Amino acid sequence: MRGRSTIRINKTIHNNEGFTLVELLVSLLLIGVLLGLIFFIYFYGTNTFNKGSKQTFVQQDTRIISEIITKEIRNSKAISNNLSNVLSADDNYYFELLFDANQLVKKKYNKVGDVLETTRFADTLSDLSFEISSNNNDIIIVKIMTLDDNQQFSTSQEILINNTDSIKAFEGLANNIFYTKYD
Q1: Beta-strand pair 103-110/115-121
Q2: Domain locations in the chain?
Q3: What is the pLDDT of residues 8-19, one digit of tens each?
Q4: Which residues, 6 or more positions from 143, have their beta carbon under 8 angstroms from its beta carbon?
Q5: In DSSP terms, which residues pair with 121 in a beta bridge?
Q6: Through-space distance between the first and last CA atoms of the chain, rounded to whole angstroms
Q7: Dist. CA 49–CA 55, nearest whole Å
Q8: How far apart are CA 170 and CA 82, in angstroms?
Q9: 124 to each of 67, 68, 127, how far by Cα in Å?
Q10: What long-range pairs does 154-157 form, CB within 8 A, spacing at least 24?
Q11: What pLDDT was estimated at residue 11?
Q12: Burial of 49 (0-12, 13-18, 19+ CB in 10 A)
């Protein structure tokens, strides 16, 4: 009996068959498909994250622009899209909000029209317009459109002007607005 078990052990120990070429090709194919799936999921997730981040920045720029405009004109002394309707004899300076080179620009002028200060906000602005509400002359409608790498966001906001006498002969739709403030 001892001889038979020795033969079986020798056969098991010396079995050098290994993997066949087909088995190797199938395992390589499975590894390749698995790696391809992992890379696809990674790059898809990265791309989605980047698009979401860009959209967040565009929306943030829109909100910032909206807040700046509201803060500037809500309590103004006089507002118009025509400079001659805003200035009075007791005003030392006046302001202008305008759309220029994809930015919201705030300019401060003295009485004679010299620019004293220029401030630029955001660089994703693609359109800006001001108009008086057809329902209520105390409301200015501001339409803001931002664009960054084909991510577009637009909003329309109604700003109730606290000083109801401040809106002066507003003429249609405008990309800029002049206003004065109380000292």
Answers
A1: antiparallel
A2: 56-180
A3: 555 555 556 788
A4: 127, 128, 129, 131, 154, 155, 156, 157
A5: 104
A6: 115
A7: 10
A8: 7
A9: 15, 15, 9
A10: 154/62, 154/127, 155/62, 155/66, 157/66, 157/69, 157/70
A11: 56
A12: exposed
The CA distance from 60 to 1, in Å, is: 86
Residue 179 tokens read as: 């206003």
List, as one string, the DSSP characters of the chain: -HHHHHHHHHHHHT------HHHHHHHHHHHHHHHHHHHHHHHHHHHHHHHHHHHHHHHHHHHHHHHHHHHHHTT-SEEESSGGGT--TT-SEEEEEEEETTEEEEEEEETT--EEEEEEE-S-EEEEEEEE-SS-TTEEEEEEEEEETTEEEEEEEEEE-SSTT-B----S-BSEEEEE---
Q: What tokens does 84 get?
A: 């001659």
- pLDDT tens digits, one per residue of 29-73: 999 999 999 999 999 999 999 988 888 888 888 888 999 999 999
